[in-house]
Amino acid sequence: MKILVPIKRVVDYNVKVRVKSDGTGVETANVKMSMNPFDEIAVEEAVRLKEAGAATEIVVVSIGPTASQETLRTALAIGADRAILVETTAETQPLGVAKALRKLAEKETPGLIILGKQAIDDDSNQTGQMLAALLNWPQATFASKVKIAGEEVEVTREVDGGLETISIKMPAIVTTDLRLNEPRYVTLPNIMKAKKKTLEVVKPEDLGVDLAPRLKTLKVQEPAKRKAGALVKTVDELVGKLKNEARVIQ
């Protein structure tokens, strides 16, 4: 079975994000970029499934600028077999990405597509669901455990009320949650091996896909700063402030 793993290059999660002065977006110039953490979990899960004998090949794909090749090489160093970059400088949005992934899925015919539940830059949480709809494949989102059982994949999902375990037939889409696994440390020998692995570069036009944005960002602004706290001497004073100032109790 082949596993397809889409990944995205985003601002590193350790970086303090700064909004541009004109409010058109966040500052990415001279900012450390890395693989979206949820996608890294997806790559790790695919590698574990291959190590367990449930998969034979792992293909990672990214849609973005030339610099995304570095992110793909990281995925190859984790254990993916080959990579595909859909090279574009245009702004990527979930629907366009899902359409490109559909074309690649139709070409690669994977038994399973594993991707992060969301990217930490836009937090859309839409691509996996849109891709499942376009392919008409069953989907399991927010996975905290994945198990291959014959022609089906058993997924434990994190829901509001606790954990839900479902079984879906392959080919299928699975989106990963934080507690699915802990990605391995990439070693230097594997980084060197990744440089020799195949990385194919294609254009959106080659896939017959239009990645033009459907949504327009009107403004980006930082969250309002929290007000300083206040010390109270008694419970009665606390209750009074909650009732009269904060107005959170009656």
Short description:
With 250 residues, this protein is of the alpha/beta class. It has helices spanning 37-51, 68-78, 94-108, 127-135, 188-194, 204-207, 235-244, and strands spanning 2-7, 9-11, 33-35, 57-64, 82-87, 112-116, 139-149, 152-159, 162-169, 172-176, 199-202. The model has no long low-confidence stretch (mean pLDDT 91).
CATH architecture: 3-Layer(aba) Sandwich
* Beta fraction: 25-35%
| Relevant CATH superfamily | HUPs
User: In CATH's first tier, which class applies?
Assistant: Alpha Beta
- Low-pLDDT parts are none
Number of domains: 1
- The ordered H/E elements are EEEHEHEHEHEEEEHEHH
The count of strands amounts to 11
Q: What is the radius of gyration?
A: 21 Å
User: Might you state the CATH topology name?
Assistant: Rossmann fold
Characterise the protein shown here.
The chain has 250 residues and is α/β, with parallel strands linked by helices. Helices cover 28% and strands 27% of the residues. The protein contains seven helices and eleven strands. The chain has helices at 37-51, 68-78, 94-108, 127-135, 188-194, 204-207, 235-244; strands at residues 2-7, 9-11, 33-35, 57-64, 82-87, 112-116, 139-149, 152-159, 162-169, 172-176, 199-202. The strands form two sheets. It has a nine-stranded mixed beta sheet with strand order 9-8-7-10-6-1-4-5-11, with helices on both faces. The chain has a two-stranded antiparallel ribbon with strand order 2-3. Helix 2 links the parallel strand 4 (57-64) and strand 5. Helix 2 crosses helix 5 and helix 3 packs across helix 4. The longest helix has 15 residues, at 37-51. The radius of gyration is 21 Å and the shape is globular. The protein starts with a strand and ends in a 6-residue tail after the last helix.
